[in-house]
Amino acid sequence: MQASPRAIAEIDCERSRQLRGDGSQPLPDEILAATEPLVLRGLVADWPLVRAARQSAPAADAYLRRFHRDATVLATHALPETGGRIFYNDDLSGFNFTTQMVGFGQVLDALRAHLDAAAPPTFYVGSTTVDTCLPGLRAENDLNFGARDPLASIWIGNRTVIPAHYDVPDNLACVAAGRRRFTLFPPEQLANLYVGPLDFTPAGQSVSLVDLRRPDLVRFPRFAEALRHARAAELGPGDALFIPSMWWHHVEGLEPFNILINYWWRQSPDWMDTPFNTLLLALMTVRDLPPAQRAAWQELFRHYVFESDGAEAAHIPQAARGVLAPISNPGARALRAQLLKRLNR
């Protein structure tokens, strides 16, 4: 029997004075620095956009149009037979959708024209900076992150299915219109998710090849184990979900008109590059070494990176520690220059 994901833990924000979507006080660190996912019911219930969406999809559409100027966005289009799943073609040589830069208003027009269609084509705009395409929206619909300065993005579309993927930043996803179902997997389930190519992806991030709505456990038998560790929640207008860094998440838009506003931030210095670059470089330089050499490098990474506590350089005079000293913004720039010089030999 196939396991069902267990429910994600929840907080009722509409009953909490500390957790309000009006921006009156910053969200607490125990949420924004957590390592487990958390549903925040009603966190943004007071947003005007949410109030409009609770009236109707046309009301939410009209509210958005107040802020639209002439911005163009990267829009995704897929035929009805895809069922809204943004994915590869059958042999992973391409994709089952097309993308085009269009006016944001054209996307709203297309969604409005197909609100009542039984099997509409897919229209989707993902990860577009709010301030770019809808200037002024955040003045009325925003959250207080204190000293954090997150990137705010909007996602809008009809019934879409985004395969399980991870993001490096922490993520607070706020449902402003429609309903979305989130299914999350902890990072340690990587081997059971059957991840596709790292360097040829539908939208920039590697995705699980398993269709969560109809998992083929003959082709992907280990996915049954992933499901035993999965967490899930369905969110409506006003609800939010905190997704910790590196947690895999599968997202379904369940209505003919869905809007999500999410906030991304990293718990690391601005100068720190994405670790994904290190992974790509390790694939080129470490993976195919003889086993004994690979084990030796594993020990070096363990000592200097994964179990680093500063003690590994304690025997070296402070002025002579070089890259083993704490890295600053100038130090990162100098180190990046050294790496580029080595890579371009």
From TrEMBL:
It holds the Pfam family Cupin_8. Residues 123-280 form the JmjC domain. This is Cupin-like domain-containing protein. The lineage of its organism: Bacteria, Pseudomonadati, Pseudomonadota, Betaproteobacteria, Burkholderiales.
